[in-house]
Amino acid sequence: MRKPKVLSLLLAAVLLLGCTGCTPVLNSAATLSQTQSQPEESVSEEAQPQSDVLLYQDDLRGVWISYIELESMMQDHNQQDFSYYTRVVLNNAKAQGINTVFVQVRSHGDAIYPSAYYPWSKYVTGTAGQAADYDPLEIFIQQAHELGLSFHAWVNPYRLMSQNDFATVDASYLTKQWLGNTQYMRYNDTDGYYYLDPNNEEALDLICNGIAELVQNYNVDGIHFDDYFYSIPPEQYGYDAATAHAATDRLVQRVYQTVKSINPAVQFGVSPGGNYYDAPASDTTQYTNIVTWCTQPGYLDYIAPQIYWEFDHEQAPFLDVFNKWVSLTSGTNVKLYVGLATYKFATTETLLIQENLCVNHPNCGGFIHFRYENLCGKIR
Known about the structure:
Layout: H1 2-16, E1 31-34, E2 52-55, E3 60-65, H2 67-73, H3 79-95, E4 100-106, H4 122-125, H5 136-146, E5 150-155, H6 163-166, H7 174-177, E6 185-188, E7 193-196, H8 201-217, E8 222-225, H9 234-237, H10 241-262, E9 267-270, H11 282-285, H12 290-295, E10 302-303, H13 318-329, E11 335-340, H14 342-345, H15 349-360, E12 366-369, H16 372-376
Parallel strand pairs: 3-4, 3-12, 4-5, 5-8, 8-9, 9-10, 10-11, 11-12
Antiparallel strand pairs: 1-2, 6-7
């Protein structure tokens, strides 16, 4: 009985802040950053880094497009059908007011594009490691930019394939050479995937080489990590929490440096779990160092906490958690974007209020919906 009244009052307050309607509205113009990049060495002799970056930094209205959506888009395993469904997905997203897409280009130590460091994703051709005769990433970026959408390449840095998928991967790839070697990776019995050891320097080099390849060879506007850092506890790798924290610091710092060394205009951000008590909960569960990353230079351009709760949630009421993240990032150079639980609230007043709080608050740069199919419906 109280909940509808509270939501109505919150909505009224947001409307007074200047909301003009229920559907988010795109910026009239994107913030176009132009920076000439001068990398010390090229990843590809043919490709040259792109200097024009399309960003909506102060009014970001984004959506995550995961490997689950990509699997549906790619199930026919040919360029014509993928191009068609890419256009459908992007047009649908834009119709919902989206101006930025976060596309999972590496979900399991693989790639949806030709890579010197990672085998082809099984979602592209149906078999892990089997090359496609087209480049899905190039198509996705081109079509996104044609529609005025910013494109962020979403990478899971540590998660690898299952044992079965590794069977079809060529031995020229480092992850195949490292398979079963606990110096480099561990197997997770819970989900059936291998994970790189975050404290292994060769693994870190591989991750950074893969990021450099993306920024060097493709006109991406951003590089994006989600909340998976330690899916396997550090003690199973043989070290303590302090070592794990240091490893995530090195990862984030080196990826940031890698991105900026090639194109300083390209953004790098992380989307941790949104729980926030006296400190961000992911510092305990995933061995992040969120306060350092948000307040010290050289780590992040933005943070996108996944605040996936109701306004009246007992342990983590949305507004309380939101305000903690606002307080952390206010006065810093790190933008705040809020991950929203569209999978829970897609057709509710709750989601509308949360969207408008994000876009109207002076110290929040926007929001990201999890995920595309929850916002726009099934692709097929």
